[in-house]
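User: Um, what's this?
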Amino acid sequence: MAGGAAGGFVARAFESMLKECSHKKYSALQSAIRTYLDSGKDINQLSNGAESKQVLSAASNQSGSYASDAGAQKADTGSDNLNRVHAAEDVDPASRPTNNSESITTILAHAGHTLGEAEAELVLNPLRLAFETKNMKVVELALDCLHKLIEYNHLEGDPGLEGGKNSKLLTDILKMICSCVDNSAADSTTLQVLKVLLTAIASTKMRVHGEPLLEVIKTCFHIALNSKSPISQATSKAMLTQMLSIIFTTIASDVVSTNSYEYKEGSLEDGSNTRVEVLSGDYNDPAKALNNLLFVKQRNNTSLAPYWETKTRVGGTDLKGLEAILEKAVDVEDGSGVTRVMHLDSMSVEQRDALLIFHTLCKMGMKGGNDEATTKTRILSLELLQGLLEDDGCSFMKNLSFIDMTRAHLSYSLLQASTSKSPVLFQHVTGIFSVLLLRFRESFKAEIGILFPVIVLRSLDASDLNQRLTVLRMLEKVCKDPQMLVDLYVNYDCDLEAPNLFDKMVVMLSKIAQSTQNVDAKSSAASQASSNKISSLQGLVNVLKALVMWEKSIRESDEQNSCKRSFEQVSHKELDESTSTGNSPDNFEKLKAHDLNIEDIISEFNQQPGMAIQHLISSKLVENTPVSVAQFLRNTPKLDKAMIGDFLGQHEEFSIAVMHAYVESMSYSGLKFEVALNEFLKTFQLPGEALKIDRIMEKFTECYCAENPGFFKNAQTAYVLAYTILMLKACGHNPMMEPKMTRSDFISLNILYSVEDSPPQELLEEVYDSVVKEHVELKDESAQNLSNSKQQPGVAVESRLLNILNLSLPKRNSSTDSKSVNETVIKQIQDLLKEQGGDKGMVFYTSRRIELVCPMVEAVGWPLLASFAVNMGEADNAQRMSICMEGFEEGIHITHVLGMDTLRYAFLTSLLRYNSLHAPKEIRSKNVEALRTVLALCGTELYALEGSWLAVLESISRLEYLVSSPAMSANIMQGANQTSRDAITQSLTELSGKPTEQVFLNSIKLSSESVVEFFSALCSVSAEELKQSPARNYSLQKILEASYYNMARIRMVWARIWSVLAHHFILAGSHADEKVATYSIDSLRQLGTKYLERDELASFTFQDDILKPFVVLMQSCRNESIRKLILDSIVQVIKSKVRSIKSGWRSVFMVFTTAANDDQETIVEQAFENVEQVILEHFDQIIGICFMDCVNCLLGFSNNKGSSGISLKAVALLHICADRLAESLKQGDTPKHNDVTADETCERYWFPMLAALSDLTTDSRSEVRNCAVEVLFDMLNERGSKFSPSFWEKVFQQVLFPIFDHVRHAGEESFMSSGEEWHRESCIHALQLLCKLFNTFYKDVSFMLSQLLELLLDCAKKTDQAIVSISLGALVHLIEAGGHQFTYHDWDTLLKSIRDASYTTQPLELLSDPGLEAKHHKVLTRQLDLASLKTSNTEKPLRENQETERLADTEGSEGTPSPSGRASRPSDGENLRRSQTFGQKIMVNMKENLLLRSFTSKPKSPTSDVTPPASPSKVRDAAPNTDERDDEDSPMLRGIRSKCMTQLLLLGVIDGIQQKYWDKLNTQNKINVMEILFCVLDFSASYNSYTNLRLRMHQIPAERPPLNLLRQELSGTCIYLEILLRTTAAVDNPDEEAIKDDKIKAIAEDKLVSFCEHVLSEASNFQNSMEETTDMDVHRVIELRSPITVKVLKGMRKLNPEIFKNHLTEIYPSLTKLVCCEQMDIRNALADLLSSQLGRLLP
């Protein structure tokens, strides 16, 4: 490139020297030049042309460089040096050595060819002589030559190195060059000298060492200090900087030593990787890692002095003592001790050179004296040191040996300079000290501990404002380094034997920031004080910002390391090759084509699942059904599980259907919930959107509850548990999440989200333990198989699930505050340091643990708050306010991240207080900025506002009120000028716009706990606004807006939000101001309509919760217009979202039910119209969700007393519901549930309607009551065939039997208090329908016979004769219509019930009170007359159809004779032959008088429905006139009369049984019948005995018959004889005879003979007594008893002849005695008997 350039230039320069000195006496110089020129004459001259060009070019460059200023000179020097480097690069690195045969010209002709010793002497000798001439022109030429020789690497040697090559020659040359500079030297000469020196230092061939090097530095130093030329000074400084950089850069390759440290990866105990700096030397001891909290970063070999010697002076007050110690340390470093020699011997030449220069600079900085020259020297030296230390490429300080040799010098120079009064010098001191703090704190731990109090703390506490400002600005810079602050805190504040540097620094900064000075605001002192305050504030804020940055970087680093370990790339399993089932080539080709299609679709699915599914269907690889697609997703390998989850979570209708089919395709039956969830999640990966996850989890919980009925109360409970399990898994998979979820957290979450239906605590504990155990096992397995670890499906999403779903754990009530936690951390560090022992000043510790930030933030937070308080209380200062607001933001952020709630609350409270919105008169620009900061935090630090939302939203409410109210706006900033007020008002107006709106919009970013707090606070603020006069609804509007924004949250979170909102909307909807209430209800409508857009699955109740406030408001509101508005709102919701409503129907029907009871007819009518429309048009929607609510609603309308028409329509709708329900059940339109049985279906659907109709049967309105009865029994008759026996039992017990409670419990105080007549009337019809129903479904309900009989006979035991007649009539009807279905057991049950009733209804009072007839003779006589009168009026029509009744009528009331005193003589046919049974006649009478009317017709009069029955028995038992109720109301008489009537009716029942079903009875049944009859007969016969009748006749007038039971006895005798005769009758067919039961026949024979013998014997004996007396009473008694005797005689006439023959001897005496009886009817009957029976016996 530049071959021969140096040689030609040197030759021309020498020639110029010859010309210059030709007239002078420089003979030695001339001779030396000629010698050089003569040696090169044989060189080829062709190179001269090129050399000339090079000379001209170099000359041009030189002239240009001389003319430049200092900056240009520095640039030229650098460029020149760069050219030198390029030239060196072009030369072969292995320069060939010179030999004596080569000429100098040849050598110099090529750059890089070095001169030998002789050649060098030949060239340099003229130059040396030229320097001695002191001729500036000659000297300058010599300098140029020397520059070229050095630049082109022609000179090689080691000046300053003993024994080095050309050492002495080059040393002398350098000395001469340096001697060229003095105070009289020209600027050009000085610049040329600097250029040569820099080239020499930068040369790689000419290596300057030792004293020559120091001489060069001193020369440059001298120029920089003493030159009068600014250009020379600036150039010399630049040259010095570049020389030092070259010197210290040269030793960079030699810094590797045994004590250097390297970076290695360490692992914490908790499994997270952290960058740990560990020694690689001989210090592999436990001190490297102190419990993973501290790490040894560097261990220094020596310190400037024993640490114990300096620790007592570290406060910075004993400067002289510190100087003495440091001076001693300097002497040690400069001395020749063994330690120093060992250090020097271990260093290279370059390192010793650097150490020499460094010591020299430090010593120059230590110079004493305050003169200008000394000060300039110290300033320059420290400036150079600062530049050297600040050089990013300076790595020499990594050499610990070098540092050990320099620490004392550097420290001493800094200490000396720090006491100087020169501001510039102190600036360099702070600059160097900042470098030590930022870059070399590990090596200068003890020195920093000494210098920090001197340089920093003492200056901050001094009165010199300039010096303080310098330190403050230095602190502003260094406090931006977070690791420096942490290291400072760990190595000093946490060491009990070290000064608390961090804490003292913060205190001093806070003290300055809070300082106030009473000086003139316009003075320079005030300006300096303000600058100091600003800098101190900025320093404090920088500390906080640095801690924020450090915490963030640590957390991000840990998260990245965690992800790197936990999430490895999943390698998909290869698809198993399918094997062909056939050998046909066609089959093979088809299968191959099919596989290729599948592979293509799988590949596409893993990129675009939606498009792949469309292609799958269009290719007809699967059917176009959700089930087929779901099976494809489940069974196809190689599908990306993340894509499966994404497709299942899509909101398109088909995707949702596929998701439903996918979830339903899995079986969860019998699985534990957590196991089922885990197995479910293994098949796909949860998508990354909250709503997608929500839909999937809803469907899963619905299916699980359907397959495991009874495990949870409802699906909503399972839904909450599923999410808490996911949260627990997320905590486990995310190692950065602290604190972890505990068992108590897990349980409280489930209780928090589902209070009423939360699972039992035992189940929750079991689930928690199972999930935690599973996670631990997976973690252990992963650790054991780390090399083969694969990503678990869903782990990536689970680890960030809480962020996706915006969920958070409930805030714990910590038992310890942050201060105690911080003290624990510090104490732990102190103990760790104490355990290390030794000289801690030699060991530097570092840490990467976030826990350390807490005490540091605690240390800076409170002073910072105090500083803010002072500055915010002063006059406006824009810069300070900006710093304060920045500090608030950073403080709130870091305290939230670290969980320091107390300090965070303090920051937030202070900031909120400073907005002054509560005092508009005091608002200033600083208050506006505080408010602006609050609103900004609502956008950037939403989570940090936890616990303070109430204050924030109160501020926003006040802001809106202040801006919107002219009266309040007028108070803003009172006393200020209008311009300022307008500016403040404008700022507030702007803040009330978009920034405020953004607060509510950003609420969607809040976590689950925070958003609930947000809405709670917003509702509280709104409640306060509503209390104002007039009420404000600003926050109410914002509630609506924020609710819209957060509607997309998962249902679990939204349910908690709504629990807060619902309460407030109810409060607002009940407000006295109709406008507020209207807005609240309209908001409810909007939110309800919006929420109903989200689909809801079965067993969930979210919609019901959303609409429930309408119910509460409807029930509590007293304002008619508001109630109508509520109803209108519900109607609008139905019309707009009728197809989306699921569980919401419950609240809808509850609103309508409430409206049904409204006193305003228009509301009732409107509600019913909509209910009717819903039932008729949307019955399919309500049937499976809230059918009972629908029925209750209709029941409410049925019970509305204001409109019978609506009530009847409601009952009709119930019937329609029944028909529609039956149709739906038949078609299978009801919701499918695997566990739903027929009983549950009946329970769910039929029972509500039946119960509702049962309630309506007690309605006071006859048309409603009758309609309900008809519909009820129609429904049972139509649908009863589908009922199971168990359901029938429930129907009887809870639906049918309660209808008769009023009648069944008649006479009790709690019943029949009013309306007895209509209750009795309803029972007549209902009993008949009940018995009919029982007979219709006898096979299904036969087990209810005993309870039905109990009901009937309970009624039969009442004193009310109408009830008795009704009940026993129903019993007769039951037997007649259904007796053919009775089993023997049923008959046994029936007869036992009749027997018990017969025992219970015996009128025992007649026997216990013999004087009864005398006491109540008047009443009895009146009743008898009334009965006779009524009998005469009704006897004629009755006789036409009831032949047997004629006999009963002539026998007197309740067995008394007819008024004529003689009993008629009915024929045998009338007694034994009946066209109708007794029970049938009773039922016919009831039908004729009560029941035969249209069901829907109304009675003509209130009493038409209670017309007395036409039955003679009932007529006689009718009550007398109301004016004659004195003695008749006697309970005893009513009871006797009722019991007598019951006995007669029971006989009728027995008669009906024996006539129609006798052959269906078994032996025991027949015996029971006989016993019942005999019991009745025995009691009546004993009471009617001849003796008793005669005795009672003495107590009454002669014209009246005595009280008797002859009617009961006569009826019983007829029935009894008929049964006995039938049983004992002879049969013509022998086979039939053989079939008969001999046992029952024998029993009947004994009973028959005994009974007849007894009656005849008693009659004959009394007949004989009549012959002995003439007492008329005896004749009257015989007359009364004669019908009984006649009945027996006639019966014996039909007696089996064999029996008569066998027992003739026993009965013949009585028969003979009756021959003389005066009663003709007895004699006639006897004659017939004898002629009939004895005729057969005579021959």
